[in-house]
Amino acid sequence: MAQPQRRRRNSKKRRRGRHPGLYKALSAVLIVAAVAAACLIFFRVSQIEVQGNSRYSREEIIDIAGVRPGDNLFALGSTRISRELQSRLPYIRSVSVRRKLPNTVVISVTESRALAALEHGGAWWLLDEDGKLLERTSGPGSAAPVTGVTPLAPAVGTYLAAGEEERQRVEWLRELLSALEENGLADRLDRIDLSEDYRLTFALDGRFTIHISPALERGMAYWIRRLPAYLEHESIRRNPSQSYTVEIMDNASARFIPD
């Protein structure tokens, strides 16, 4: 009789130990669910920090972001907040939303600035380095006037668009503005002319008229990255009243031609 009883006990042990992985997985799921429930219940917003803003007030950003004291910290929709801020506040270029436990949300914004301006329909449209239309004004202000592109249905908060025949020029403009900003030349920009299909023309410092081909093998960004060093060359600095035409039309060099 003892032997059958031992077999029954061994059989029960085998049944209990047949699915150890399943029990571990269920335990892990229960633990995760408990932690998630605790996060939803206990972590509530009581402090809201705004960083990087200068054009828009803290209160304006918080109101449009839709974050309120008492909101659950982990239920905040970062993508929604970013989309709302960028669409309703045109000068906001990017948004980052961070959580600082136990009760703080940090909204960090990067603001654009107007680098260029296009005249259309009796008004001027200011745009940033990405080609985003920031504002409709009565004049270009400190932004560099752009010619050679006709905006297509411009609206604040949208990106510059043009007809099929000028679409490539819009891409060149974005590439040029981005490169100028990246290399510290945007504040020295006087004007941009995109009226020719084989080259862009822009002016700096009131004394340099620069022609550059958009078809350069190394790209416009490469040559504009080198441009500050060219402009600071000893022979150029020696004659501060001399104006120059700068030709960057091939893949070899930039040619400075005294006017």
Topology:
Elements: H1 2-16, H2 20-42, E1 47-51, H3 58-65, H4 78-88, E2 92-100, E3 104-111, E4 116-120, E5 123-127, E6 133-137, E7 144-147, H5 167-182, E8 189-193, E9 200-204, E10 208-212, H6 220-231, H7 234-237, E11 244-248, E12 255-258
Parallel strand pairs: 1-3, 4-7, 7-8, 10-11
Antiparallel strand pairs: 2-3, 4-5, 5-6, 8-9, 9-10, 11-12
Helix pairs in contact: 5-6
Describe the protein.
- With 259 residues, the protein is of the alpha/beta class.
- It has 2 domains: 70 residues, membrane protein fhac (Ubiquitin-like (UB roll)); 143 residues, Rossmann fold, CATH 3.40.50.
- Helix content is 34%, strand content 25%.
- The protein is built from 7 helices and 12 strands.
- The strands form 2 sheets. The protein has a 9-stranded mixed sheet with strand order 6-5-4-7-8-9-10-11-12, covered by helices on one side.
- β11 and β12 form a beta hairpin.
- α5 crosses α6.
- The radius of gyration is 30 Å and the shape is elongated.
- The model has no long low-confidence stretch (mean pLDDT 89).
Along the chain, the helix and strand elements come as HHEHHEEEEEEHEEEHHEE
Give the count of structural domains: 2
The overall strand count is 12
Q: What name does CATH use for the topology of the largest domain?
A: Rossmann fold
Major beta sheet, strand line-up: 6-5-4-7-8-9-10-11-12
Report the total helices. 7
**Which secondary-structure class do the elements indicate?**
alpha/beta
Share in β-strands? 25-35%
The geometry reads as elongated
Q: If you average the pLDDT, what whole number results?
A: 89
Q: Major beta sheet, specifics? A: 9 strands, mixed
CATH class of the largest domain: Alpha Beta
What are the segments in which pLDDT stays under 50 over at least 5 consecutive residues? none
Amino-to-carboxy terminus distance: 116 Å
